[in-house]
Amino acid sequence: MADVICVGAHPDDVEIGMGAAVARMVRQGLDVVMVDLTDGEPTPRGTHDTRMREAAAAASALGVSQRITLPLVNRELADTVEARRMLAEVVREHKPRLLFAPYPIDAHPDHVAANAIVEAARFYAKFVKTDMSGEPHFPAKVYHYFAVHLRLVAKPSFVLDVTGDVDAKMAALGCYGSQFASDTPNARILEWVRSQAASWGALIGTPAGEPFFCREEIGVSDFRDLV
Question: Lower CB density within 10 Å: C or N end of the chain?
Answer without folding.
Answer: N
